[in-house]
Amino acid sequence: MTQTPQKTGLTAAERQYPLPPSRLDVSVYRDPDRYRAEIEAIFHRSWFPVHPSSDLPTARDFLTWDQLGQSVVITRLDDGSVAAWHNVCQHRGARLVDGSGHCGRARFTCPWHGFVYDLEGAVSSVPLRESFDEDALRGLRSPAVRVREWGGWIWLTLSGAAPPLEDYLGEIGRQLAGYGLEGFSTRFRTSVRLKVNWKIVMDAFNETWHVPFTHRDTLAGMVMWRDAVIRLASPHSWMTLPIRGFTQRAAPSADHRESHLCHYLVFPNTIFSCFPTHLQMWSAWPVSVDETLLCAYEVVGPPPAGRTEEEWQRHNERDWRQFLDVLGEDSEVINNIATVAGSLGFRHSMLNTAESRLTAFHREVAERIGEEEPA
Ligand code: FES
Ligand SMILES: [Fe+2]
């Protein structure tokens, strides 16, 4: 696939940066009521990649996902599929499962009064059963959570009404499918707490023109940030970035995924930053109105032709160290924003056309919480 403009009749500048400048009131980052509305209207209704599939390699493996004030148990069933259910006992609300591991007996026992749950979250045994109302126990289970495996990741949504995953991903799913991510493996991971609203974190990763300033000694030498081309795929967005010394050597007709760094936002909180042979993926999880947990992964494909596994591993290690340097530079700027987050001297952001993805993102957020436009 070659790069094509989104609409006809656009100027070159509009094709690169599709939206006009906009303004954003600081309350979108600071208002606790708005934060709660975002959790409910956006995070309780979206799909998220929550773990690499390889974290559940064999039947009866389990893990937990704890974000957004929710806890979900994810299990590998004997038929190889995955199940997910809320990690809360239906008797009196105890937490059922901690951490991850292998559950050879395929049963989880509540640590409080011993209700037993199977791998799919159904109650299979109740102590003092005769002392309960039998009707209340019939078919009892911890509520299921919708879960899918796709592209090497376990995805879940807390909503029964969200569209099927492929429909939710739309164009971004079609883009990611071209990488063959099922054949990739997760080699490194890290997490970092950032003392700002989750949208400040997302904003920080959805434009490139901070690169020559924040990443002068790292990323600036690697990507041709001025030549980023932005595309909107509501509610998601993406951009292509030429890689210095690499993209120029690619045939002009080459698929952009084979010649560029392609940077995909899966709305609301996940970035897939894809090089032709490997990618970094990260998600920004809201902790509170002014705190975010960023979880990042390095995911690599098989060694390219002519490289041994050892050479490829060394390359991946070097690449991960570079990513950590870049992430450290972004984190420093972001955490310094926290020191002025309550400033009386700042009332609104000014977004330029190079920040079109931010404008589109904030419009999506506003629309989903029932605002006409960002405040
Ligand atoms: S809360 Fe789980 S058995 Fe009582
Ligand atoms: Fe950055």
TrEMBL record:
Q: Which cofactor does it need?
A: Fe cation
Q: Name one Pfam family in it.
A: Rieske
Question: What residues does the Rieske domain cover?
Answer: 47-156
The question of whether Oxidoreductase is a record keyword is answered with yes
Q: Which domain of life is it from?
A: Bacteria
The record's listing under InterPro entries reads:
Rieske_2Fe-2S (IPR017941), Rieske_2Fe-2S_sf (IPR036922), Ring_hydroxy_dOase_asu_C_dom (IPR015879), Rng_hydr_dOase-A (IPR001663)
Gene Ontology molecular function: 2 iron, 2 sulfur cluster binding; dioxygenase activity; iron ion binding; monooxygenase activity; oxidoreductase activity, acting on paired donors, with incorporation or reduction of molecular oxygen
Matches recorded under SUPFAM superfamilies: Bet v1-like, ISP domain
Keyword terms of this UniProt record: 2Fe-2S, Dioxygenase, Iron, Iron-sulfur, Metal-binding, Oxidoreductase
This protein's name: Aromatic ring-hydroxylating dioxygenase subunit alpha
What lineage does UniProt assign to this protein's organism?
Answer: Bacteria, Bacillati, Actinomycetota, Actinomycetes, Kitasatosporales
